[in-house]
Amino acid sequence: MLRIDRASPALVRMTIDRPPANALTLDLIQALADALVRVGEEVEAPAVILTGAGQRFFSAGGDIREIETQADVALPRMRVFHHLLTVLENYRCPLLCAVNGYAVGGALELVLYADYVVASEDARFGFPEINHGLLPAAKGMRQAMNRLGRRLAERLLYSGELVSAPEAQAMGLVDEVVPSQDVQDRARVVAEALRLKDMHLFAAIKRTFNDAPLMTDAQLEARTLSDMQDYLSRAETAAARERFLQRKARQTHD
Fold it and tell me: What angle do CA 55, 61, 63 make, to 5 degrees?
């Protein structure tokens, strides 16, 4: 159900592979959460590309048949899914989604937690749950509002409509739209470029993005000063600042 390929020490591709639609089951959701936790605990955690097998589906979201055939699985699955969203949110290194085909329902919630999204020209996105007697996770709905703004989130959630990749890009849901055959390669290029950044600073930025909406001005000031004290004392960040100053000096001299 989940293929994990170590492209390099700094890059892992996780592929949802559950034909025909890569629908999310309890076991698959748990496997994905466990895999992300495991690589995230590495000292030099890798960038992660999350994708779906095949060309038609990134994922069709939660498997409705699993809920209908196993009445006692619905609540445990939603608890595990909430946990997965939390793991995605807190993954400290670059997390990308490479989307071919449909990314709907719970799959769109996964995409909303990516740091960068590359989509194929034929990708489709949406929250069809309202038309199927279901609801997204509350955490996913909040992330939709944070990412897209309330009006666009309402449009998707209230209507259940699906939008095209160009529409999704205009909304701010997708960063790039490329031909289907280029999705994986482009995602890898971006992932490798992001992973070359100082991951200590990258993680600090992600942490503040997550925390800032609920922080007071005093807490934001304290976070700023704490982060500043940290990065001013690190040899790696000091070297980066010195390289910047040297470039500026050369430009001035030239």
Answer: 110
Residue 253 confidence (pLDDT): 74
Q: DSSP of 1-67, one letter per residue? A: -EEEEEEETTEEEEEE--TTTT-B-HHHHHHHHHHHHHHHTSTTPPEEEEEESSSSEEE--B-HHHH
Q: Is the dihedral of CA 213, 215, 221, 226 positive or negative?
A: negative
Cα–Cα distance for residue pair 199/94, rounded to 1 Å: 9
| Sheet architecture: strand order including 116-120 | 2-8, 11-16, 47-52, 95-99, 116-120, 176-178
Q: How far apart are the first and last CA of the chain?
A: 57
Instruction: Give the pTM.
Output: 0.93
Residue range 47-72, pLDDT digits in tens: 999 999 999 999 999 999 998 888 79
Tokens of 130: 């309202």
